[in-house]
Amino acid sequence: MRTLLLTAAALSAPHAAKVRASSDPLASSTSISNILSKTPSASVSVQIDSVVAPLELRHAYDDIITEAAAKYKLDPVLIRSVMQAESAFNAMAVSPVGALGLMQLMPDVAAELGADDPMDPRQNIMAGALYLRRLLDAQRGSVKLALASYNAGPGNVAKYGAIPPFKETRDYVKKISGLLAEARANDH
Q1: CA distance 56 to 137
Q2: What is the value of pTM for the model shown?
Q3: Of 126, 145, 148, whose CA–CA distance to 137 is shortest?
Q4: Which of the 8 DSSP states describes residue 53?
Q5: What is the C-alpha separation between 7 and 21, in angstroms, rounded?
Q6: 29, 52, 112, 142: least CB-packed within 10 angstroms?
Q7: Count of C-beta atoms within a 10 Å radius of residue 72
Q8: Among this protein's residues, is 168 annotated catalytic?
């Protein structure tokens, strides 16, 4: 501990110590003791005036969601709900079938939509929003059919002319419809 203090004192006040050649080792250690006794000890004080609450994960991407919603004329709640259902806001999510990122885009779909790095949150959200816009347009504004297309693929929705009879897809549409309703109820 003494060595640590001596080192700290020597480093913090190099101008206070002069190196002198001496044949008496006691004299040089006495001069260091004198220096240490005259050098104020280091102290740190910290004051916390406020604590910033951590950002909720569901709001970590609000700025990108807002940008994507404006660019593609979508409800930001729809984008956020898809993200929640798809990845629970985990930007590093990878599904067992290879869907990637926050909006769980398949690599070929991501590339087609301009996402060179589908694990990049901004690219993923922007590409996912563009995909939602295209699906909504293809389904003449039907959110439920667009969501079914997002989950099961537009070919399956076209084949059945409705939400396909797949349990996963029906549960998916129901889950996101519930998230949308809940978000809108909490807004008012």
Answers
A1: 32
A2: 0.71
A3: 145
A4: P
A5: 19
A6: 52
A7: 18
A8: no
